[in-house]
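Model: You mentioned two targets. I'll fold them one after the other.
Researcher: Yes, keep them separate.
Model: Target one:
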Amino acid sequence: MYSLTEILVMFAIVRVLQRIYYLLNGHVQHGRAFSPPHELKRWLKEKGIPIAQHRFVCKNNQKIELRYRRIGTGPKLFLLANGVGTDLFMWLPVFKAMLRRNPRLFTEFTLIAPSYRGLFGSGGIDGSVEASMSCLAGDVLEILAHCSRNSREGQGFDSIVGWSMGAQVALTCVTAHPHVADKLFLLNPSGGRTLHTAFQPFVPIPYIGKSVSSAMRALLAALRRLTFTVAWKRVKTATSSIYFRLFLELFSLLGGFPPELGAYFEQYLRDVFSSRAQTRGLLDLILSLDDKLPDAAFLLEHKSTVVSSVSDFLTGVYHGMFLCTAMINATFKPVLFGSHFLLLEWPDSLAKDVLELLQSTKKHALR
């Protein structure tokens, strides 16, 4: 038997070797001037891919203003349900790889990229936001109605591509409204009650889940209170310092991540601390991850691809395995050397899997 120290050393060696692999296969170290959002904007302009911003007020009685982006001109719509707190730029390496494989991608499809309520300007007109999986699923319906109002009646999304929280939103939505989408691509998904299984990558630990969830809820509540104090501003300053940048670089190296991941993490934190409301919205949405999925979510007939990372400490690999065991028409694709950020680690492989689903046809008609 190996000791814990030996296991950790072997894991670190494997991840450093993975970093070397990235460097040998074209990944480059970006300087501090690199900005993922600006790079996404530049790339879209260079490729002549149109992007339009939309916002509207929901028709329900919550008076929520929702925002989404529309990218491309294709007749088929596919929704990108992002990870919690992340913006569209996180998918830039995958978009580049997808376009290399299919230069007509954005003339065949139109990508709909919503912002979750409470983030990036989406939220309650009176400043209040109710965060739950059912509310987020309802927002998907509102966005579909708005973005397809000039299309044929009853048109749904060809596919929903959901990462992390987005996968949970997708499952919640299509369970209640199966015809919202024909196909599902679930990246690092959770089967619900996510806080109960956090930091348990290989197997959920019996009797521990409730304690983990309670501890995380208490921590998130404490952090939310801090957003009203001067401590929030001090943390914001700390996350923009050179010392924190060096920490991200070291974390990226020891974690085996691509060298540019530090720049993506840094931009993510800039977004998190762009305003106190944004920080509070993120914390509220994280709490919604502990919502339970309906039992019917595990019996969906949608053609689905599920990709999970074996070393994902946020949503353990067993979530994807269980979903594929239960779902009628799902394919499971585990990734041995990957984390929760596969879209940055293995964009070429992920692009191939997404395109295969987008370009496939349904095997079974939905009942």
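Model: Target two:
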Amino acid sequence: MSVVKCRLTTDWVWKCNKFFLNINTRKFSKNVKSDEKIKIPPPEDGKIQAAVLEKFSEPLVIENLDAPANLNTNEVLIDVQYCTLNGPDILKMKNLHKSPPKLPAVLGYELAGKLLEVGDQAKKQGFKVGDKVVALNKTRYGGLAERCIAEMTDVWKIPSSVKTLETVCLMDNYLTALIGLEKKADLQEDEMVLINVGLGGIGLAAVDIAANVFRAQVIGVSKSEDRTTLVRDKGAFASLKYSDKKLMKKIVEFAAERDIKDVFDGAEGEKFKLMLECFTNVYKEENQNNLLRDDNFSVLIEHLSREGRIIIAGFAVTKDDYDEDSSKKCPFSITGIDLVEFKKKHLESYREAGNDILQYHEEGLIKPSYSFIVGLHKINEAVKFISDFKCSDKIVVDLKNREAEIKLKDK
């Protein structure tokens, strides 16, 4: 039975350089100090508090800032209740992101709260003062502040039956996963998908959507045993700790159950092995910054036979790393899902996917998760958790209870 490969391409694969990939994140964590050593200014009338990046590779500073003003007609002003802290925020703090911030900067791009002001054009789209909303401010950031301006196409209303805390963990991860699995992979019910879960939330979201929305058969691959339990809880029928030999053996077993044979045989089998290596090499220390990027959830499709296929999704090492090694010629292109670029090219699909995600959650099909909640004044403790790769999921920053200590999610 022959193995046929499907080649995928993308216009927005980011070519990150070798310096970026070899940065040791542990150097950054040494510079992160406890919040207790950072002076917290008392609140001022007419001002808002925010976590501000004053210098690269330094802790965030709590400052009182002027409230956002001069709302454009297509914008809304959000009273921020929660904002998540994500890998791209950490990369921006180190000046390692493809879109470096202009200092001083307020980071945070995934936020939820209530509308305080609404521009005229936004009003025509149905937004009004008092609406509960979730926003994905991936080009503007500014979510780690008590108030934040967002463009209306990056804002969705929260259904009345849905908790604000749950929606703030929803959009970035689940939107990325849904676009990858639906638009790029054309995942069908009962198909098999192998997801490299990584260390953050996108992989878990992909497992959740694939298993519970598409009803696919999901194999989850993780670095540690504790994450295999999380993957299984999301609906994967198999959840494995990464091991070269064990992973290939299990794939052969799962494929055989579907009468798919000779998975790793011949030239096409060797290509399949290289695809797996491309995804699992992110666990090597020199490549782990790939796990913090926001354009690195990738989808590759390997057709195995007329009877079925295995879709590979998750975090991957870039094609450039393989091209630099003459002994490993990369036979495929990595399809990275970049929400900023996808929105530019497919605004209607972007908006529709966001609405679908909220509907899936309201219907109980998917359930977003987070590692812990922490107050704004303890922000640098959260930064250190992500920098040290100790988080299994999102970190939520509470803008209303600013002094809150770290609180783990209730089981």
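Researcher: Noted. Anything on target two?
Model: The radius of gyration is 21 Å.
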